[in-house]
Prior knowledge:
Chain A has 252 residues and is mostly beta strands.
Amino acid sequence: MSDSGKPARQIYDPVADTPSCYVREGEGVHPPLDSPQYKSTALRHPKQPLVFLPQNLTELTGPALGALAPVGELDNDLTRQHEGEPIGERIIVAGRVFDTEGKPLRNTLVEIWQANACGRYRHRWDRFPAPLDPNFSGAGRAVTDEHGRYRFVTVKPGPYPWGNHYNAWRPAHIHFSLLGRAFAQRLVTQMYFPGDPLFRYDPIFNSIPDEAARDRLISRFSIHDTQPDWALAYEFDIYLRGPGATPFEEAL
Amino acid sequence: MTFPLTPAQTVGPYFAIGLPWPEGPHAVAPGTPGAITISGTVFDGAGEPIPDFLLETWQADPDGRFADLHGHGGPSALQGFRGFARVGYEDGDGSFELLTVKPGSIALASGAAAAPHIDVSLFARGLLHRCVTRFYFADEEAANAADPVLATVAAERRESLIAKVVQGGYTIDIRVQGPGETVFFAL
């Protein structure tokens, strides 16, 4: 018990901590769906204004996907999913999943996918003439522990060209998919690496209007998590929205 | 103390190497009594099918219970009820089909009832953040007429949220942009 007499909780209690509503996303953090510099948005963004959706049970609950599609022992180690080791710079990517109140989200699924060390995806529509690696699929899954932690071992993905504009290259990145604990918390994003010279040229990275928000997608090199004689480590913490005050219009 | 949100980025064209799995489109186990299919096509602003979309759905069971982490309403009486489906293809043609059951209505805090609905997230290359929409059901006319969310949608646009009855289930298309544009929600 804390001094106030309330139990001090560090982690989500699955029932008691179901919020009555989550903070609304508002504007300014996420990229606008109409981002002309990223050409594929042109025909793929809604033009009608979004309709306000009050949050009720369907939005406040979310799937236990880790239980639906159980995470295998090697799912978080992308370097051990084949007979041999993939070519490339072995790295550790680790971090924690929090809500915006700073509470760790335990037992939530983190899924990643990425190009190989040469910048090539194992996908039939990736036509970049760089080699595929027979020892690298490029997909991983992990469930956060009681402190919200996840950890992957992989190889550093390469940058790769794409057709958005002349001489367009994506900065090296790993795709992240987060289920959170509620439909309202669902997030798909990309993690970048510090110091990438391609940041200033990339319309997807720069679609996020706020520089501080963009920087939150850049992982930090961690000497602390780096394993001697084995692999460099990058740290990437993720913040999904947390409980919000219930505004009048949420109450249907 | 509050912390700033992590911003979204597009799912890109290559999510199929990581996100879909074979049973993903099944929100219920095959053979579940009352199982239905919901099918449709996702179109872009030029009226062309979007082959590289990822669609996720989340819903209650016929009794209004969720198969969620929080245990709302107690466990579903339906064996194998997941309430979640994920559909996306490496080599898609713009269409989707998922297997589920029609959800029940849900009691709201006010005592009113929400019409049976499924929450939907749409992701795609060219979508920098998910688009959220809902599927309602054409054969729930009375419930739809009383639904407080549908009531906030302009009458001429409501149809885009309502799945039509077909053999074995329902069908509903998603039009991301242009004539008949689907209603998307701010959540």
